[in-house]
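call fold target=Rubredoxin
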Amino acid sequence: MKAWMCMNCGWVYDQATGDPMSGIAPGTAWEDVPDDWKCPDCGAEKADFDMEEI
């Protein structure tokens, strides 16, 4: 499985769960997350995330 980790705080975006608190529905592919979305824990930009194999 692939996930995207915030390089600032370690928060992980998982496509299966999305980020409902920010309006990103479960099942939303990383490519479909808006470019202006920010990390819910630290406010980092989407560009500050790196893909990680889990």
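return ok
The domain at 2-53 is CATH 2.20.28.10 (Rubrerythrin, domain 2). The chain has one domain: 2-53.
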